[in-house]
Design brief:
- The protein has 155 residues and is of the alpha+beta class.
- It folds into 2 domains: 3-78, Beta-grasp domain (Ubiquitin-like (UB roll), Roll); 88-152, DNA polymerase, domain 1 (Orthogonal Bundle).
- It contains 5 helices and 5 strands.
- Strands 2-1-5-3-4 form a 5-stranded mixed beta sheet, with helices on both faces.
- The relative contact order is 0.16.
- InterPro entries: 2Fe-2S-bd, 2Fe-2S-bd_dom_sf, 2Fe-2S_ferredoxin-like_sf, 2Fe-2S_ferredoxin-type, 2Fe2S_fd_BS, Beta-grasp_dom_sf, Diverse_Oxidoreductases.
């Protein structure tokens, strides 16, 4: 059995026939080919699959695709400008060396951009609290926090 799914992903209307058990992260990666959204733990603990759903950071491995019916989704691929210029948060991660292996980076960037939407001038504590559900096994978080602070300060 398949069901019809219609939503907007990175500004583009998308329609598909999917198995109703399809997770949103599977839909994004396997049906749309947007592989920047990573699958890390499959249990919503690591944050590698973080996307924006109607402007809010959510873990796409913990949501059925059908729960996003009619929603607006932004993935890491949708943050950059159409001309390829990086989003200021992506540029800050690069400038501040907020990544090493890069596996957690898309989820971190998506969580951090959602934070600055709600709190444009977060304290270090606010940043660490907002990123609490995103695990990085390489960086020790110092440069990730610095990147968010840099972006919040305007670059």
């Amino acid at each position: 059995m398949t069901v019809k799914l219609a939503l907007t992903v990175n500004g583009n209307a998308v329609e598909a026939e999917i198995d109703p058990r399809t997770l949103l992260v599977q839909f994004i990666r396997e049906h749309l080919g947007l592989t920047g959204t990573h699958v890390g733990c499959d249990t919503a603990h690591c944050g590698a699959c973080t996307i924006h759903l109607n402007g809010h950071a959510v873990k796409a491995c913990n949501i059925l695709a059908l729960q996003a019916q009619g929603a607006e989704i932004t993935t890491i691929e949708g943050l950059a400008n159409p001309d390829g210029e990086m989003h200021p948060m992506q540029a800050a991660f690069k400038e501040c060396h907020g990544l090493q292996c890069g596996f957690c980076t898309p989820g971190m960037v998506m969580s951090a951009t959602a934070l600055l939407k709600e709190n444009p001038n977060p304290s270090e504590h606010d940043i660490r609290a907002a990123l609490d559900g995103n695990f990085c096994r390489c960086t020790g978080y110092q440069n990730i926090v610095k990147a968010v602070q840099t972006c919040a300060a305007g670059g």
